Every structure is written in C-alpha cells, then in structure tokens.
Amino acid sequence: MYPWRQTRDPYAILVSEVMLQQTQIATVLDRGFYIRWMSRFPNLRALAEATEEDVLSAWQGLGYYRRARNLHRLAQLIMHEHGGRFPDTPSAIRSLPGIGPYTAGAVASFAFGLAEPIVDGNVARVLSRLWDDATPIDSAKGSQKLWQRAQAIVQASSDPRSLNSALMELGQVVCRPIKPACMLCPLQQECQAQAPEQLPVKKTKTTLSEVTERVFFDLSPLGVLLEQEKGSRRTGLWKLPALALEEGKTPPPVLLKTSYGITRYKVTLWVHEAPAPPHAIANVQRFRQAELKELPMPSPYRRALEKLLETTSCSTQSFSLAL
Ligand code: SF4
Questions:
Q1: pLDDT, tens digit, for every residue of 168-191?
Q2: Could you tell me which of 54, 246, 284, 312 has the fewest CB atoms within 10 Å of its CB?
Q3: How far is the CA of 289 from the centre of ligand 1 (A)?
Q4: Which runs of E-coded beta strand occur in the chain?
Q5: CB of 191 shorter than 6 A to ligand 1
Q6: Domains recognised in the chain with CATH numbers
Q7: 135-153 pLDDT tens trace
Q8: C-beta of 185 in contact with ligand 1 (< 6 A)
Q9: Whole-structure pTM over 0.85, yes or no?
Q10: Binding site membership of 117 for ligand 1 (Cβ less than 6 Å)
C-alpha cells in the first residue's frame, strides 16, 4: 500500500496528492521524491520555515514548480492563520492555495473521513462506464455529471475514506482503459456499459506546439554562468543563460541539441558556445561545480549542463580541476 494511504496526517496526504497531480506514481515513489520530501519537511512548520530556494531545490526533478511554491505558501498560511492546525472542513480546505476539487476531496476524505467526492482519471473511467455515459469527460457537462455521481455515491457510504479509495483502485486495477476485467468486477451487476473500451469519451486531443529555445554555455575558471528566471512560472530557478540572436549575425557554434516536453509544448533546446563579446544579461551568476547540485534548476537544463560539463572535463581536465 502507498505510504500516503497508511496515514491520516492531512499534510502527508496533501504532499502526495500535489506531487501526483502531474507526475507519475513511479517517479514520486520509486525515485524517492515523496520519502525525501517528507524527511526534509516532515510537517507544516518545517515547510513553512524553509526558504523558497530550499523548497524549489527539494522539488527538483518533479517539474511544474508552481506546485512547490503553492505548498510552501499553504504551509505558511496555515501556520499564520490557522494556528498551525490543518483546516478540517471542506470549504476551508478548498480555499487553501493550489487546492482544486480533486485534492480537496482527497484530503477531506482520506485525512478527515468526510463524505467528499474524488474524481481522478480512474474514477472518471469507472463512472462513465457504470452509467454507460458518452458525454465527454472533459466538457463542462461531463465534468458536472461525474462530480454529481461521485458525490451521490460517497454520501450514501458509511465509510467515505474506503469508498473513495476502492473506486480509485477499481479503475486502476480492474476497470482498466484497455481490456477491463469485467468478469472480476464487483460492480458487474450494476454496470450498464455496452462497450466499456469505448468509454470514457474525450472531446479534445492535445496537440503539441513546437518551440525553439537558444541558450549558451559559458564556463570559466570561476565557474559556469547561469541565469535566474524572473517573471515566469520558473521564477527563482537557475538555467543556462538565454542567447539573444542578433539579426544578420551568425549565432555561435552549437555544442548540444536536445528536446523536452512541457505542458503542451515540445521544446528544442539549442546550447551554443558563449557569444563574443559577452551579452549584457541581468540576474546572472557564476557557480562552481560543487554548488550546482543544490541549485534549483529545471531538469532539462540540468541534464544538458551535466552533459556539457562531462564533455568539458574529458577534453580539458585541468579546467575541470579548477572548478
Ligand atoms: Fe468497468 Fe467492467 Fe466493472 Fe463495468 S463491469 S465497472 S466496465 S470493469
């Protein structure tokens, strides 16, 4: 059983739910993110008192850093406005920063045993099939139906915690997207699905937009030059500095080309040699190699930087030793 299903601590449950919002369970659990976070910030107070740099650094590798910032804000708000006690009513939980209906339902039912619904992808699939409903689950009407049905089911239950957990597990293990195990399903008698594999229906297909990003790698005996992001979702994180292309001028040679995905974008990242003369960029600083590990940095830049440093240390050993 997952560690967050073996506790009633609302903070521990919240952390797991927020991590799982946009990250696979295998990453959160098998790669140790949840366990490391909980040992670094075991309670609301520890998180509230941490610096933003510490929080972002602990979140490294999970992406979508807004989640970490919201958790940090939430911990500070509960310490200051709720006397350090996690709110235990549905409306107060929903009013916390970064908490949507799903996360609110998970905390309310798993931590406090409240009869609050949860609709995640697994539950949506089960409910669409139980009612044989082809209303797109990503439409306003479809979403409304799902939440109303989930609410009706949980309110009729004497054990909301177990009910929500069972519904999620049913979707994960039995009512699978492909080849649902209907013969093993405890809801087989009630289920109205005629062609379960054709449900649920979605109205939109996500199309990826292609984006190009150019940065540069500037390494000197004083360290590697990095730029701190400002005014974006990645505010506070460090990255390779942006390369401004001047019209009519040939860009510096390319050292590395790689790509990564973020939300609905496929980004091609070109890393160039440092421009000469150097760009005038605000928010830049040089870091020695030993300092890079603790620096909050989005994974695509970290991977690129590691490759570049590896290549540099192979070709210029003395340079690497100077770092
Ligand atoms: Fe899903 Fe089949 Fe169970 Fe219906 S009977 S809920 S389609 S597993």
A1: 999 999 999 999 999 999 999 999
A2: 246
A3: 54
A4: 209-217, 219-220, 223-228, 238-239, 254-262, 265-273, 284-287
A5: yes
A6: 3-198 (1.10.340.30), 209-311 (3.90.79.10)
A7: 999 999 999 999 999 999 9
A8: yes
A9: no
A10: no
